[in-house]
Write a structure and sequence with these properties.
The chain has 341 residues and is an alpha/beta fold. 40% of the residues lie in helices and 16% in strands. It contains 12 helices and 11 strands. Strands 3-2-1-4-5-10-11 form a 7-stranded mixed beta sheet, sandwiched between helices. A hairpin with a 2-residue loop joins strand 10 (304-309) and strand 11. Helix 1 (15-28) crosses helix 10, helix 6 (139-160) crosses helix 7 (175-184) and helix 8 (198-210) packs across helix 9. The longest helix has 22 residues, at 139-160. The radius of gyration is 21 Å and the shape is elongated. Bound molecules: 6-O-phosphono-beta-D-fructofuranose (F6P). 6-O-phosphono-beta-D-fructofuranose binds next to loops.
Length: 341
Amino acid sequence: MRIGVLTGGGDCPGLNAVIRGVVRKGVGVYGHEFVGFRDGWRGPLEGDTMPLDIQAVRGILPRGGTILGSSRTNPIKIEGGVERIKENLAAQGVDALIAIGGEDTLGVAKQLFDRDVKVVGVPKTIDNDLNATDYTFGFDTAVNIAMEAIDRLHTTAESHHRALICEVMGRHAGWIALHAGMAAGANVILIPEKPFDIEKVCAYVESRFKTRYAPIIVVAEGAHPLEGQMALQAGELDAFGHVRLGGIGEVLAKEIEKRTGKEARTTVLGHIQRGGTPTAYDRVLATRFGLGAIDAVNEGDFGKMIALQGTDIVRVALAEATAELKTVPASRYEEAEVFFG
Ligand code: F6P
């Protein structure tokens, strides 16, 4: 078989490990051939390819980013996009496609599968918000980067008696904030799933200052206050209709200063959470996902997403995996709340 591989959406540590797993087993065990499509769905849409053989995947296991490049191109939004993809796959002699991506990339994969494209999906996102898989690779790396940053913020916050706010990624789901905040002992963690009460946040801040232990607030970029409490700015939309976030940390700092009279500063971790080398956990998970994906293609089991359930690598229908996001349940947030204040 000749198999196309693409990586779409926001990049994430471990993408290269997946590609390596797919190609090493695909060529070495099954004798398949591969072609890489550049920059997510833009590749098959425009017929932009690169060679993808054993040599191309040598040495990429520990490297962050993706050797294939990525984009947020949405072919469904482009007139005739699906037909162009099908024509380009046929022109390249591609029998099947492995799409590595998050909710958007896999949503497109599902729609292509519905229109007879043989596709298998691999879940990727630092946000860990994909349903049907317990974890996505990249999440562990992002959490560890954020945890280390919060540890560092603790010591400087104490020296200066400041409230320090750490804004982390997480558009619709607060998994990174929850795990990094729990691991690093945050004063309070604010996530998109639970609108926060600014008065309570300020009370936590005051109580930490009373004990001479400076407060650290971990806030997910998608977190928002209870209705009417604070004004928020609107951002631009991407091709999948997502608003570009970032800024809640700054808004919070101003509000905390105004309400408590204490100095508050914000650190936005942003893309640092997505860059660089993956943790051992993410390398192993990504490698196992890659092996699972090529096994599914080899068996002709299309329209599936590879997933982790418990410690097992399993296959779930793309339709099921992309039906809804996996957000933080109230019970998980309550565990973290024990340590607030
Ligand atoms: O979906 C992954 C993610 O890192 C989100 O946490 C974040 O909101 C978004 O991508 C940012 O995307 P970009 O930097 O590509 O605009």
